Amino acid sequence: MSLDSDNTVGASPEILEHIIRCNEGSAGSYGADDITKRVDALFSEFFEREVFAFPVATGTAANSLAISCYTPPFGAVYCHGAAHIMVDECNGPEMFTGGAKLVPVTSEGTKLTLESLEAAHARGWSTSFHHAQPSMVSITQATEGGTVYALAEIEAIGGFAKSNGLALHLDGARFCNAMVSLDCSAADMSWRAGVDVVTFGATKNGALAAEAVVFFDKEKAQEFIFRRKRSGHQFSKQRFLSAQLEAMMTDDVWRRNAAHANATARRLSDALEACEGISMAYPVEANEIFVRIPDAAAAKMRASGIDLKSWPEFGPDCYRMVTSWCTGEELIDPVIRAAQAATAGQDGI
Amino acid sequence: MSLDSDNTVGASPEILEHIIRCNEGSAGSYGADDITKRVDALFSEFFEREVFAFPVATGTAANSLAISCYTPPFGAVYCHGAAHIMVDECNGPEMFTGGAKLVPVTSEGTKLTLESLEAAHARGWSTSFHHAQPSMVSITQATEGGTVYALAEIEAIGGFAKSNGLALHLDGARFCNAMVSLDCSAADMSWRAGVDVVTFGATKNGALAAEAVVFFDKEKAQEFIFRRKRSGHQFSKQRFLSAQLEAMMTDDVWRRNAAHANATARRLSDALEACEGISMAYPVEANEIFVRIPDAAAAKMRASGIDLKSWPEFGPDCYRMVTSWCTGEELIDPVIRAAQAATAGQDGI
Amino acid sequence: MSLDSDNTVGASPEILEHIIRCNEGSAGSYGADDITKRVDALFSEFFEREVFAFPVATGTAANSLAISCYTPPFGAVYCHGAAHIMVDECNGPEMFTGGAKLVPVTSEGTKLTLESLEAAHARGWSTSFHHAQPSMVSITQATEGGTVYALAEIEAIGGFAKSNGLALHLDGARFCNAMVSLDCSAADMSWRAGVDVVTFGATKNGALAAEAVVFFDKEKAQEFIFRRKRSGHQFSKQRFLSAQLEAMMTDDVWRRNAAHANATARRLSDALEACEGISMAYPVEANEIFVRIPDAAAAKMRASGIDLKSWPEFGPDCYRMVTSWCTGEELIDPVIRAAQAATAGQDGI
Amino acid sequence: MSLDSDNTVGASPEILEHIIRCNEGSAGSYGADDITKRVDALFSEFFEREVFAFPVATGTAANSLAISCYTPPFGAVYCHGAAHIMVDECNGPEMFTGGAKLVPVTSEGTKLTLESLEAAHARGWSTSFHHAQPSMVSITQATEGGTVYALAEIEAIGGFAKSNGLALHLDGARFCNAMVSLDCSAADMSWRAGVDVVTFGATKNGALAAEAVVFFDKEKAQEFIFRRKRSGHQFSKQRFLSAQLEAMMTDDVWRRNAAHANATARRLSDALEACEGISMAYPVEANEIFVRIPDAAAAKMRASGIDLKSWPEFGPDCYRMVTSWCTGEELIDPVIRAAQAATAGQDGI
Hints:
homotetramer; alpha/beta; four-stranded antiparallel β-sheet
């Protein structure tokens, strides 16, 4: 076990058990099974309206497919310069859209702001056929910096999108962590705030490999079906994908898992921040911690056996720690103790 | 349970159990785990040489990725007109290659023949920049008609490919069924016969969702890694994909499952063929049966509760039945009895 | 000079002269010039309704762009197996559509027939998300075999397209030759017969490099503008493209040029057909001749200095001859004389 | 006439005359003509080594094709944030590469610098399969800000590219203007400095519509041929493209035209700079002027009939003026006089 990532841990027992249960008997292939139908209903309930939810196995697939339903090949997607779709998907969105452009929007901090979007849009992308045509805004919730957009922030971006004829995508690889953090409903964090399509992440929250692409518009959902198939993301034995989501959405597994991860991150970051010289690069609002540790302290921690993961993107003294649905005290306590020991003498004892 | 397809059934117990086993503890994400390493070794052993085997979740992904490593956007792939890549992947290969062309090669029956390939190639595709440039041949083993290429047939196609500078892809969605049918080695059915890249199917043979793309060339394998990532087929918790393949390749699970499916198909087809007026559209050499049933008999069978699946592609009187790793006598016996009953009076007794 | 093709000849004097005229002074770039505006008006007059006509420089660009506005990446285009878009554009339509499929429809002869289309469509492409989704039919007028669709034939195909929700594209690389042959209006040969988008060819008919993509639907025309730009087919000094079309559409240059080519082809083919043993592979209805010449006669003709161009696609004894807007008697008379001489003794004189 | 752009003017007389000359007689189509052969030789002489030069009609085509021969779909191209390929080609490079990414490199001023490239590369794009893989650097010469890279600056970037396994593309839409400005050879400004492929612009320098893509590597040149064809940029009557380039490269037309444009820009900018309160946004080193004019003065100039073109990208007080091969004194003198008049009283009269 480590704090490396929330995808180095395994799957939640409720989910594995449900897979085993769903293995019984035969089931229609390619999504023509009862479990898949129930998942659609569960998501409609979860989002408090009719939605069209499609299970896929990876976040890159979910994001790229969602974007490709709203962005023509000559389109442009505004996103944060550190967005997963920009940096960590090896041109997946470009592939699925047939060559659209992701436009990195310069922002202080970890979020797109209304001001930064307005400034980017004011550069005039939509004013001439020479330019890629803005089609969409994509935000990540929780963000790549471990922070969480407030509802009002999403609404502001949603308003900007609407008034400029753009769709709004929410990359929710850590959707549930953000919901728990905001203590809000899925509806509030999505369509009520102007979001058109959601990548709902389950893998990091305890699934084996399952995300849902959630549409609020039926026509786009129709197009998705063909795009999913041709990109190889339509599973033949789809019940095993759907089963993961069904278990996740049943009996609040999603909430319990996310709440555990968030609370553990909070406990860890609080303890670290109490150490002399250690600070957080960004507020810890979900289950990712980006912590600044002075070099001497970091060296001592490593010497005592702690595996610190550098995160140079946020500075040379920055380290990332991620908690998950199953991160236990046995994992974080040694980190806390090492940090305390490494920094104990610094204040002049 | 039904004979609809080999992907309406669930997963083999050995595979599910291994997934549960592999869920313990943490593991490197994105393929940096021990199980994935072992899978590579297992496939090298299986193919009797160093191979580069990559787990993906679907056949469309495996085929499209394999082809995209050998076919430029201006390339052309010769395949059978009924090939899965041509008919059933919603332009997946076209997407992954960036717009290459699949050239349907006219053949009698269910296989590409040397003659049909030579005739297609003689039309001169490679002679001018006006045309798509032939880059590859793709064959399906076992075929979409339930037959199996003999080793000599693959070797002939492999020779044609080599001498014309083309790569040879083998879509082995039912690779193991074909191996069992031929009673040959994986090496004989692939690289020794001139195959460059294999889609090794596990899903239909008892996995939840797992195929392997098997390269014999290291450079192509390198390129695959980027193509897999950007198409969304690199799993974060890859251990769960690899675990399926590890279980499949251990203790001959692959062989047992395929042998059961083949033997059951044989028993069923033998019994059907013994019925007056019923015949096979093509020789039953793996686990798919395409059977011609006179209309009157088919109507009687349906009336007695048998769910016959029409296969108009092979004629108006043709029906498909597929056996799997778990098809039991309770499933085929009623079909046989109904066929016998439906045809009993036809010869005038 | 030769009969090799209608693109080995130069440009019509009216067109060159107009280019020189249009070179005077400055003009808005990227299509914001007066000549381009006039071209739009000329085409609207020519087609007897409001059209949206865009000049591009090559037939591959015109065809691929036209198709890409009507075909999603998961789409399929029915066309003749010998269609230029299928055989001679090196996967251009596949590139512009982002990976759609061209489905070669088996037809006797040089035309798509209603029957052949219905048979292809009955194979069920549109019935499942596994398959590429039919979006369009594309026909070539005049055809790749030198024949011309009768209006009723186009109407039948147009009706089929409409009733199946497909768009109809007409590749009119030799549009004017066909119009002259049918002695019909552009409207009759296009939108009145159910055609949605036309590639109007001017290059072969006397331009330097100019075709027009003609839309009857404004929304599609909007999309075209972005697709043209990103594919590099928006000229900065567009007046020079538009000037070619303006000259072509003025004072019946288009008709005179096409009529000359057709009449010359007719004269040549009539004379050849009168020779013992020589026959036409297909009726000569425009400016292309596909002629069968017995081997001995062909050898004699070549020995007398005639450059015969083999056309093996239509058989080992088939040769192609193409007349153009400027093919003179000095070019065809020697061919006729050589054919007469080569076949003179064959009937035993 | 105006100073709007160097593509609102017509074609140089030498070029038009040569087109007329080349219209005589027939010529092999699709590049199999003598003029095209001579153009290849002319470019080899011009670049002082064997090159493979291909005429196309637009800069977007030339750039996108050049890039696509060096960049896989999972690749990344470093370029300036204001680069034409980034901003003004409506995702052309993304289309031709099948979805590669252009990475805007933050630079002060109008040029990529070694430091800015090193900083971008240090972000680690090439270190993991999660990221797009850097394949290329693209620079514009002269730049989008009217400046010209010194040879040493190109060499530094060339060295960076080589040592990091990247290819170097030079977008030379104004190649000749830059050569004249540097008074250097084409070889010095390209392959001797580490450039792998050049877009050689002729349209802005007096052609109707012609650019050359110049390769120094034969293998890449082979691939180009197929990519050109499928993108619709292989002209059938290619002699008319080649003729423009032949005329341009003969008798120093390229140099005369570029020298005239540069000298006129210099005269204009010198005179403007002498006006109180007017300054240049960037040094005027080729034929583009970006000039800052105080609001009051700009208003007066407009009132006196001068058509000032705002260039907000470089600031609210910035205007662009472009001279061309044929910009005469009658065009710039009124601008100078108006500027003088508009600023005359500002220094306290």
